[in-house]
Amino acid sequence: MSALLHYSYGLLQHDLTPGGWPLHRAVASARCRYPSELTLITPTGALRFDPLHHQLTLLCAAVTGIQYPEHESSSRFIVITSRFARTARLYGDYAPRLCAQEAGMLLGAVHLVASALGLRTRPGQDQKELNDLCAPWLPGAGEHPMGYLELARPPRPPKTGSPVDAGPQRPGDRAWHPPDLASVLRVRHSGAAIFDPEPVPVTRELIDDLEAALATAPLGDFSCHLLARSVTDLAPGHYVHVEGRLRQVSEGDPLALLEQIGQSEGRLSMNFRSTACVAYLAVRRGAAVARYGDDAFRRVHLGAGAAAHLVCVVAARHGLTARVHNGYDAATAERLLGLMPDEETVIFQVAIGAARPPASFRLPVVF
Prior knowledge:
The chain has about 375 residues and is α+β, with helices and mostly antiparallel strands. It has 10 helices and 17 strands.
């Protein structure tokens, strides 16, 4: 549990700057506001993870009413909540979007680390179950339920001489992760305030990892469009991730597409000319709204956010930076990427490149 919490949302780096010491956790967060909270729910209590002191603090003892027939009695739940006010101080009414994005990325982070530790997880989006998990301990105001993961008991080893019966596969049992995940998470970062990477191509090995990672994302309600400019052994063009593989949609340098999509208030949001490739994660907005109503906003961000974290981890494994950047025109992205009108929309733009050294010193936080 110590490793799971630390590498999911613990403090891994800090910057030495004249204005202070910004602390970086294991997932990306808009301007390091980190509105998300992790709470461990057990049959005997609810415990809040405190990253600064790397400890669990008891919120509520003897939590009852969270055991459902389909869950094993030994199951534990990690619940993700969000304090919108932390981000709203800087971003105002845009804060819920940023908080929902981070909640999805954090769900993906917990799922990834749990898989590397050999734990079975069941990522959950159901609103009723989420509210039932939060009801005994969540404060009345200021903190919003976002998502959860069930940590199931590992299967019992078979008796000697008996056939191995692994039982039915559950969501979350299978996930991509690099063998050196701990070191990868320690070096992952989002780059400097302005993303202006070196013009360095990415390797085909990165693309292979990206294919494998997206194929095992914990929540699959998303599509990934990759605009590749500079990849060794891969022709420039527009690719779509379909059935575990990237399929080419169009050939040629996609710089013109990137610069049309990446407009923010009439100007480009980053230097696309030196960015190796950009991933756009899209969701079926229309179908989600029709099925879930207002709750569709939370659900689609959880699914796409979990995939976005995988993109960031894949980039870090290959010595590169993945930058989540919302400076893009959604309508233009829908049109140029060939999404279904009024049905699909892009909610993540993730640029991958070789980040230049920042002005500050970035130091590891080591336990």
